[in-house]
Structure formats: structure tokens, C-alpha cells
Amino acid sequence: MFLRNWLKLLHFMGLEFWLPLPILGVAFWLGGNQLTEKVLSRPYTTVNKLQADVQPEFYLSMHVLFIQAEVDRNAGVTKVFVQPINASLNKSKFQVATTDISQIEIAIAKRLEMSIDDIRKLVRYQIIE
What we know:
Number of domains: 2
Order of helices and strands: HHHEEEHHE
Number of strands: 4
Strand order of the largest sheet: 3-2-1-4
Structural class: alpha+beta
Keywords: Membrane, Transmembrane, Transmembrane helix
Number of helices: 5
């Protein structure tokens, strides 16, 4: 009977909901501590290790803004103008002794030490007849 009156009093005051919350909070706190300790104490092995003595796989001799190629079919040569991104660097000019587009791209790629795909993205052709 005493318990029944006690529950009615708790229900009347609205405390039957609020009283279990600290118990749940303490349970989550202890469970979280146990889980954190378990995760942080497990061994951690790395497969890939840092190798500082290896040279980079790519090398870009200059950062290029655009490449303009003037193809002179009458003379059989192509004049190439290279504009670097940095304005303080000198513009590069050179000639290629071919008018075939694929050969021009290969020659520019060798000269600038870049990939042919990068050259194709940057080059603009002007054909002079």
C-alpha cells in the first residue's frame, strides 16, 4: 500500500519519467568509457610505411598556361610558343620540323617533359596555308 501511494505521488508530480534519466546517463557514461578504452588500446599496425628516399613519380618542368602551335604547311615547319603560368618565367619558343599533329604533340611533350594528354589539353593550333 505504501508503494502504491508512492507511485501515485511520483505520477502526480511527473517524476516517474525524470528519475530514471540519471541512471541511464551513468550507464551510457560507463559503457562509453569501456568502449573507448577497448578501441584505443587495441594494436594498430600500418601496412604502408613512409619512404623518404624515393624520388617522386612525376616531374613537371614548368607550369604551362597555354601552348600555341602555328603550323606552316608551305614551309613544312611548326612554330611553338609556350606561355608559362608565372609571368616572371620566360616564354619558350621553338620550331618542330613537321606538320603532322600527332608528331607535333610528341615533340612538344618531349621538349617540355609532359605527358601527351596534358599537351592535348593545353595546345591551340593555327594552320597557315
